[in-house]
Request: fold
Amino acid sequence: MQKKIFRVMTAVVAVSLAVFSVVIGGISYSFYKNAAQNELKAAAEIAVSSVGSNADLSQLERNLQDALNYKVRLTYIESDGNVLYDSEADSSEMENHLDRSEVKQAMENGTGEATRVSGTLGKTVYYYAVQYDGGVLRFARERSNLLSIFIVVVPIIICAAGAIFVVTTVISIKLSESLIKPINRLVTQFDVNGDGIGNLETPYEELKPIIKNADLLMKRISKNVAKLKREKEKITLITDNMVEAMILLDSDRTVLSVNRSAVRLLNPHFDPHSHEKLSHLTANSELLELLDRLDEDDSVRGVVSVKNRSFRTYINKSDFNGDYGIIILMVDVTESLKSEQIRRDFSANVSHELKTPLTTIKGFGEMMENGIITGAEDIKKYGGTIYREAERLLYLINDIIRLSEIEEHANSESDQVDVLRTAQDVEEILQNKAYKHRVSVFVKGENVVIKGNQSYMTELLLNLMDNAVKYNNDGGSVWVEVSRSGGNAVVVVRDNGIGIAEKDRERVFERFYRVDKSRSKQTGGTGLGLSIVKHIVAYHNGEIAISSSLGKGTEITVTIPVSEGE
Reply:
């Protein structure tokens, strides 16, 4: 505002000075022009009256030049208009001047004057003529001589105008400052935090109604700002503590807001307050492809992979006053997707595993019922098959129930478990089975006690040692060694049996996965043993590793933390 006032005042002063200079210049020029003409008239009349007729015109010219400080052209014209004498040109070559207005005036009135462009000199000339010796004596002065007088005055006018402009400029600055200073002081008193409410002052009576209204507005603004601040802090607190990643974009995909989870997930080096494009936050192609689909729909969703994890991503477009923003919400569904896949696989595998023995039992039972099988030997044979399939079905159901219990931690009893003693007990349980398969079992090591579930540990060792016996060769061996390493109990179960191919090694802990399905069927395997082992190890916060070569045997190492008391 101060600059505007200063510019307006300066413009007014400048225009005023320009008009003033033009007017003064015009008046001065007219004044000097009339003065110069009167001077020429007076000098001419004095010169004519001071000499008689038939005077030497060249002498008359010299007298004029001596009396005046500028050059005067002298011309004598006879009554018939012929030029008899001219001080600047050859009179014999000059045309008749009887039609010249100043000559006519002099012939009629005794004197005459005129201003025009001279045909002889080609310049604007002021003429003054008087009757003399039966003809006309004409005095001429170029206009440039008149201008030369005025030019002397022009610098004075310019200097005066410049001085006035400088003074008025300074006055304008001071005046604008004095006008704006109280208003600026008033503006500085505006405080939406409430400190300036009721304290507004001004020396101008005209501004007091504005102050009153401003005071009311400040109160309202202060309340709204405080409310918005609280809401913003609440929203920030909620979004920053969200597990889900949330990003807010404008229509140009500039990041308006991003919570901590999104920064940690997509780009830990991104500045949330930088307001940069989404491309600076992430270059994830799956996320960008979902965003591109917003051109067709107002809401899209899909699964985006980031850092080997899966995120169900919801992207919505929100219109506001013709413009729109974009809200992105990313929810980690890695575990739920894995669980869903495991559930589907489990359902499919259970259905398959249950269907086979049930089909066998149903088929042979139906044959017996219809009298197809009547012989004692056949009944014994097929009855044995039904028994074995029913036993296999019972084992399968028991393993499924057992696996479910372990996953849900249904048995959370905590015991002091002697791992070596448990391995020796399992060796006794498997003694007959090992003898039947002609496999030798050797258990050694040190007594290491852990805090865990006794039944789970027994089942863990039973499954590992039972597999080592079942999938061994005639005359093979199984070695079980228990030791302590740092704060962990280490159990190594090693055999020299058939081994596991590299392509199957990573999948043996999956439910119902069997390397040799025909042999598993013969030995009664359900495909859940190693899966149960894996869950028991996880229950005890341990780790399991497998090393195997096809035809050379398998070694499984289980590491479980020892209890703090031990």
